[in-house]
Amino acid sequence: MDSGKQSAACRKLHAGRGFLLMLLLSISAYGEEPALPMGLGGEEPSLPSGLGLGDAEPDLPPGLDGGAMDALEESEVQASSLEISGFLDLRVGEWLDSHSYLENRPLNEARLQIKMDKAFPAATIRLTGDFIYDDVAHDRGIEPENGQGWLDLREASIAFSPIDFMDVKLGRQILTWGTGDLIFINDLFPKDWHAFLMGRDVEYLKAPSDAVKVSLFNPIVNLNLIYTPRFDADRYIDGSRVSYYNATLGRIGGTDAITKVKQPNQWFHDDELALRLYRNLGAYELALYGYRGFWKSPGGNDPVSGRAIFPDLDVYGASIRGPLAGGIANAEWGYYDSRDDRNGKDPMINNSEQRLLLGFERELATDLTLGLQYYLKRMEDYGAYRRTLPAGTDPAHRSRQELTLRLTWLTMNQNLIWSLFTFYSPSDDDGYLRPKVHYKYDDHLSLELGGNIFWGDKPQTFLGQFQNNDNVYFAMRYGF
């Protein structure tokens, strides 16, 4: 790194530290709300009925002495304490083949994540930010929507329980639901596909949402309702970091063919609504899903501007998960209603689809686990799709099938983890391998070596388009 880049990085690091200190002092001095339990998930368990955060405190029993009062005061101080954690993550990656479509290596970055949780008597505040030096990125200005720049704000939220059967979470947060392993049907929350394909930790596959989440609980059925006032798109493949098949050009493109989009972005007009109804029936969890919004990655083209667009989309689905044959089985289904092309006659917009996932996981031997999945995506109105295709266009198959396999082997007292995840499509004859070795040196330091390997006979198939992006990466993380 030359001296100019070093000084720039130092200035950004000092600025980031000053920004973090101001936030910390502000929260400590003025906050009046509580912090969520530590953890990465976008969902929090509900409190039993009668233990909501908003309940009035009971009177102290008669005769309670001053010593007990001191203990009570001490517990209240601990409840409002500020918890800080995080990690420093260093990653470097290399292409396995010479890459004529992209200008740089896939990955060369340092990432410092700071997570702050503060609990108050009536609410919880969480703030999580990643301070990043990304040597590959051309533009280091902050762009919160796509995670680019020297700061990626992962979470800035407040959670509270206004009544004992309701939880509310407001602000930027990571959201997830569904039953798939790296396959998403009813999870219509944003994903970061660049991060996934070029070697960042798998936690970065989930991009943050700016949303309101309301959870209601009762003995019959539970409800999650999530409202996003402005559309949160995927951090989709656009050619800037990963090459892809550009249908307009009819060839693979990279930095020479960056996707230009026309994205819905009006507050409270281009919004999204997602809901999940779920309950346990014995050892099984059943769920119904609904979504109203847009295709999360570009799902069509505007013939006037030539830009990629995000057509209107409704999704309806269901899932079940529970024990079977000594393991855990799951099934999930979803119907994708492409509202801008319900009859399939517009070749510039995705047709409606049905999607099905069947999965099974069990332990084969001590510390050796196998996971299998079958995934089907079937296009509706296929006849209309074929009739309206532009001349010379190679049609997609009506049904795309995928098989996945995950093998996880824990060795050295579970400190060394060997992992292999594979995708293979017998219908399109393409595939994807994700091998990984993760070593936990101690409670703070871990090392990781992994790769992303693609293959396919045709460049226009879903995984075949990435066959020029084979890469390996090395990571070192120190947690605190």
Short description:
By secondary structure, the protein is mainly β. It is built from four helices and 23 strands.
Could you list some keywords that capture this structure?
globular; mainly beta; 23 strands; 3-stranded mixed sheet; Porin
Can you describe what's shown?
The chain has one domain (15-45, 81-397, 449-471): Porin, CATH 2.40.160. The protein has helices at residues 3-30, 66-79, 193-198, 382-387; strands spanning 82-95, 108-119, 123-134, 151-163, 166-173, 209-216, 222-228, 244-246, 251-253, 261-262, 272-281, 284-294, 300-301, 308-309, 312-324, 327-338, 353-365, 368-379, 399-411, 416-425, 430-440, 445-456, 471-479. With 480 residues, the protein is mainly β. A hairpin with a 2-residue loop joins strand 11 (272-281) and strand 12. The radius of gyration is 24 Å and the shape is globular. Helix content is 11%, strand content 44%. The longest helix has 28 residues, at 3-30.
SSE layout and pairing:
Blueprint: H1 3-30, H2 66-79, E1 82-95, E2 108-119, E3 123-134, E4 151-163, E5 166-173, H3 193-198, E6 209-216, E7 222-228, E8 244-246, E9 251-253, E10 261-262, E11 272-281, E12 284-294, E13 300-301, E14 308-309, E15 312-324, E16 327-338, E17 353-365, E18 368-379, H4 382-387, E19 399-411, E20 416-425, E21 430-440, E22 445-456, E23 471-479
Parallel strand pairs: 10-14
Antiparallel strand pairs: 1-2, 1-23, 2-3, 3-4, 4-5, 5-6, 6-7, 7-11, 8-9, 11-12, 12-15, 13-14, 15-16, 16-17, 17-18, 18-19, 19-20, 20-21, 21-22, 22-23
